[in-house]
Amino acid sequence: MLSARQSHFSKKYTKDIYSDLIAVIDIGTNTIRFLVGYMKRGNVVRITTDRSVTRLGKDLQKTGTLNKENIKKSIRYIIKLKKLCEEYGVQKIIAVGTSALREANNSEEFLFDVKRNTGIDIEIISGQKEAELTLKGIISSLPDFNNILPLLLVDIGGGSTEWILYNAKYKMQNNTESRNINPSLNMGSVPIGAVKLSESFIKHDPPTPNELMTIKKFLLEKFSNLSLLISCPLLNLIATGGTATTIAAIDMNMNKYDGDIIHLHRISIHTINAIYKRLIALHHEERGRIKGLETERADIIIPGTLILLIFMEVLNIKEVIVSDYGLLEGAIINYHVL
User: Fold this and answer.
1) How far, CA to CA in Å, does 18 sit from each of 109, 126, 318?
2) 85, 48 in Cβ contact below 8 A?
3) With 80 as the cut, is the pLDDT of residue 29 above it?
4) Do 298 and 335 contact (CB within 8 A), yes or no?
5) How far apart are the first and last CA of the chain?
6) Comparing C-alpha atoms, which of 305, 314, 311, 191 is closest to residue 242?
7) pLDDT in tens, 88-132
8) What is the 3-state secondary structure (H, E, C) of the chain?
9) For residues 79 and 73, what is the distance between their CA atoms, to the nearest angstrom?
10) Which domains can be identified in the chain, with CATH numbers?
11) Which residue from 245, 190, 239 is spatially nearest to 219, judged by alpha carbons?
């Protein structure tokens, strides 16, 4: 189903006015996200957005392959997106795959089936490329970008977490695990996400204190070197991805998701901790009734929230800005630059 925002744009109006529309499809471990937009004066104008939780990477750590039923679900949704592109008169479709497609043994089979059913080619991008596109998309949405440097971005997905440190004034330290694309950019990608943590550590509903403590210890170990890699004063943190936007929606008591309202919402670590404590006290069904929390995310929101909390605690960051912009917008910008 299309979002309410999409109803503001008639298909005929879009075709008549815009001749350079680009669609981007982001195929993630948990969610497939979609954007139709165009460039205007160096910025992305969003015409319509949509998303669907297909959980393509379900049980990937256990089986090494993409879930068969969710492959079918994902392809059905991509077919719908292809038809929507045709209705909008989209000139170019960019499709990218991230963590699940990077890791699965049957990714090529999935790419072949999508191509056969839709004609769409999917590019599987690296974690570093994912981070780079996400940064481009977020920077394009910031009206006072120069006033919030130095900037740290964290993108918490279903299967991986990317971080990017950007500061035009200082040269950052090198991260030996990832290559800097310019002297003021430092980035990294770790194969830790909300879906992976949920499947690996949570066996009870609600999670037991021991399960939660095990996740915390795991994350503290994985993020232990962040304070060395990211040593910059007066750091501003921006978080993107389903976990961050869901936390913002919960904080805003949102009945229906609206990315334009969520974008650039600020949340303190104290508030995130309060939301986390509320979540861990509830069963799955009860969490699914919380305003702002989509039912499909009720099982993974707790580990996702823990990723953000531990990330902030390790770096002693007290507030985060949530971005609804990211990889989708960055892909449109990147297409025009190339």
Assistant:
1) 35, 32, 43
2) no
3) yes
4) no
5) 33
6) 305
7) 999 999 999 999 999 999 999 999 999 999 999 999 999 989 999
8) CCCHHHHHCCHHHHHHHCCCCEEEEEECCCEEEEEEEEEECCEEEEEEEEEEECCCCCCHHHHCCCCHHHHHHHHHHHHHHHHHHHHHCCCEEEEEECHHHHHCCCHHHHHHHHHHHHCCCEEECCHHHHHHHHHHHHHHCCCCHHHHCCEEEEEECCCCEEEEEECCCCCCCCCCCCCCCCCCEEEEEECCCHHHHHHHHCCCCCCCHHHHHHHHHHHHHHCCCHHHHCCCCCCEEEEECHHHHHHHHHHCCCCCCCHHHHCCEEEEHHHHHHHHHHHHCCCHHHHCCCCCCCHHHCCCHHHHHHHHHHHHHHHCCCEEEECCCCHHHHHHHHHHHC
9) 10
10) 4-125 (3.30.420.40), 141-327 (3.30.420.150)
11) 190
d(CA 192, CA 161): 6
Amino acid 184: pLDDT = 52
User: In this structure, what token pair is assigned to residue 33?
Assistant: 């996200």
Residue type, 291: K
Closest CA relative to residue 215, chosen from 122, 290, 308 = 308
Find the mean pLDDT for residues 7-22: 55
Q: Which two tokens stand for residue 229?
A: 């890699």
